[in-house]
Amino acid sequence: MAAPIIRNPKDFLSGLMFIAFGAAFIYIAQDYTFGSPRRMGPAFFPVVLAIILVLIGLVVAVRGLLVTEDPPRGFTWRGLLLVIVSTLLFGALVRGAGLVVATPVLVCISAFASHLFKWKITAIIAIGLTAFCVIVFVYALGLPMPVIGPWFGR
Amino acid sequence: MELLANLAIGIEAAFTPLNLLYCLGGVFVGTLIGVLPGLGPTATIAMLLPITFGLPPVSALIMLAGIYYGAQYGGSTTAILINLPGESSSVVTALDGYQMARQGKAGLALSTAALGSFFAGTVATLLLALFAPPLAEIALKFGPAEYFSLMVLGLVASVVLAHGSLIKAIAMILLGLLLGLVGTDVTSGTPRFTFDLPELADGINFVIVAMGMFGLGEIIRNLEHTETRDVFTRKISGLLPTWKDIKQITAPVLRGTALGSALGILPGGGAMLSSFAAYSLEKKISKNGKKFGKGAIEGVAAPESANNAGAQTSFIPMLTLGIPSNPVMALMIGALIIQGIQPGPQVMTEQPALFWGIIVSMWVGNFFLVVLNLPMIGLWVRMLTVPYHLLYPAILVFCSIGVFSLNNSNFDVYLMALFGILGYVCSKLDCEPAPLLLGFILGPMMEEYLRRAMVLSRGNAMVFVERPISAVMLALAVLALIVVFSPAIRKKREEAFQEEE
To answer: Is B213 in contact with B418 (CB distance < 8 Å)?
Structure first.
């Protein structure tokens, strides 16, 4: 069996990630003044760092081609997607709809990511947690967050 | 005695009813999150930071510090009772502690951990009181070149002492430094890497990075596998150690304390490194080394003392130099800045009540912890039975509310989600998020010191090696890198870190 070209996907992919980040920083920094060592412009420090990052990224990626190791396992798309989407929804809802909508939405969608998800207990947690957050964060600690948002005509 | 006068200032600050309450609250929360696997002090402190905005600085810092060392106590309970580390620093405690619990000695293991931690905490508090002032005095003489070199040394040391791939850790630091530079450049006023978004003009708040990478990233990772958790003992008895037990643990506790205190000061050190270094040492020199892994009481006493000592001495570089040695200390620095206090050696002279108040509160907190952990053990055991799938939505809610309330901005919540993705992807690729957070905090400071040093030397980079203190620190950093990249040492290092897996 021929050896695969990418022998260590973890290293290869992290290398690519570092190169991509470094390159992006270098590219964006082209608009800023570089300056001289004595009078460093806003681009000086980031560009130097980003160049080192790209070089290290290259080394890591090449190492990923040479040394064999196990590929990453157990990647959970479901967990990633549901946690991220529920967080984004919380951000989108909290200001307009208020905590009483944003919190239950976040709890229910994120709880669905677990294999042990059950509707009943999730609903209880959602209600209990919303009450707790409203009482503790808004009334007790006075964080400026709408309990019921302006979308409901308040 | 100047020390006594200073401690008196600290006692005055720490013993107000309000501060005692915050100290108790801090160690209570700390124990709680220490007990619960999957929720660490970094995410918790990040989550609670917004709540501390309204508090006086002393109370805020006392509470946050309590969470950190409290978590070290709580972590051992989980490790002993369900063979699962509640905290990464309790990984080695699980090896022997769980075996002790299976032999019906859960109570003894728990009290050994608590008493060892208490002793270590007391010693580390004293060390902090003794060594912080002279160190701060030296640091007052530092110019920009020294600070820059010190940060380089700190970052290098954090890589050397961290586990996992070295070169990837360095890359993560660089990425962190770069992300830290996002926002308006102080010197020229140019907005950098902001994509013309006004929300990014002031830079990315480090709480967002910490919560995204540590909070969200960790949750997603825990969702990969369905949990199985068996609480071994419901009823805990035999909490009080006998004289024979005490004699047996005295030496390991002393060694653990000494090792933990020393390692805690080092950048990148702190609780986790201390605990497994202490375990390895104890296993090597103990008379019943063969019993290790099968319920040796020394295997609980040494690492538990060490992690608590390390957690507390890691405050030394933070309080005296303003340089974080681990992500938790980075958050503490953030808390100071939010309170309008510039971290650095001047904190001790300008804010003596804050400085000494924190130190004294640590001893008080350790006392609270023994009380919380031994008589109230039943409560924590019951906490252990709360399954993770019911817990994580709550963590997510607290993270989101915490981040939103930083600036009342939805954008910050979106940004946290983005860092959550980055955190999860990084952990899947075996890239540690901790170095990134350290770099993130230090990025702007390093750039500032580099610029100042270069202006003062008129663009002559030799200034970093011509000034003796700076040269020594850079030489140490280079030496550390050479040593660690040499093949022989690398192999040893990998072996040493294997016990943790």
So the answer is: no
Residues from chain A that touch B171, judged by Cβ atoms under 8 A, are 14, 18, 53, 56-57, 60
pLDDT of residue A154: 55
Given a cut of 60, whether residue B475 has pLDDT beyond it is yes
Percent of chain B with pLDDT over 90: 18
Residues 74 through 103 of chain A touching chain B, CB cutoff 8 Å: 74-76, 78-80, 83-84, 86-88, 90-92, 94-95, 99, 102-103
Q: For residue B184, give the H/E element and its range.
A: strand B183-184
| pTM for the model | 0.85
Instruction: Indicate left, alpha or beta for B226 from its phi (over 0: left) and psi (-120 to 50: alpha).
Output: beta
Structural contact between residues A49 and A63, judged by C-beta atoms closer than 8 angstroms: no
Rounded CA separation A110/B390 (Å): 10
Residues paired with B276 in a beta bridge = none
Distance CA(A54)–CA(B461), nearest Å, equals: 23
Coil, helix or strand for B351?
A: coil
How large is the ipTM?
Answer: 0.93
Q: Which of B33, B56, B36 is nearest to B46 (CA)?
A: B33
Residue of B53, B223, B405, B454 best to disrupt the A interface, most CBs of A under 10 A: B223
Q: Identify the pLDDT of residue B480.
A: 82
Q: Quick one: closest CA in B to A16, which residue?
A: B429
Domain that holds residue B9: 2-500
CB–CB of B410 and A94 under 8 A?
Answer: yes
Q: CA torsion sign, A127 to A88 to B398 to B223?
A: positive
Average pLDDT along chain A: 89
Q: Which residues of A touch B416 (CB under 8 A)?
A: 87
- Class of residue B178 by CB neighbours under 10 A (exposed 0-12, middle 13-18, buried 19+): buried
* Cross-chain residue pair B420–A76, CB shorter than 8 Å: no
- What's the mean pLDDT when you consider all of chain B? 84
Q: How many CB pairs under 8 A join A and B?
A: 196
B481: three-class secondary structure by DSSP = helix
CA distance B320 to B345: 5
Nearest partner of B248 among B278, B280, B288, B293, judged by Cα: B288
Q: Which of B84-88, B126-130, B282-286 has the lowest mean pLDDT?
A: B84-88
Statement: residue B117 has pLDDT above 60 = yes
CA distance B89 to B267: 16
pLDDT in tens, A125-134: 999 999 999 9
Structure tokens at A102: 């944003």
Chain A closest CA to B401's CA: distance in Å?
A: 9
At B216, which helix (H) or strand (E)? Answer: none
User: Count of domains in chain B?
Assistant: 1
Candidates B235, B281, B221, B243; CA nearest to B426 is: B221
Instruction: Give the C-alpha distances (Å, rounded to integers) separating A105 from A86, A143, B363, B377, B405.
Output: 7, 20, 43, 35, 18
Query: Residue B468 CB: number of other CB atoms within 10 A?
Result: 9
C-alpha dist (Å) from residue B487 to B481, B492, B493:
12, 9, 10
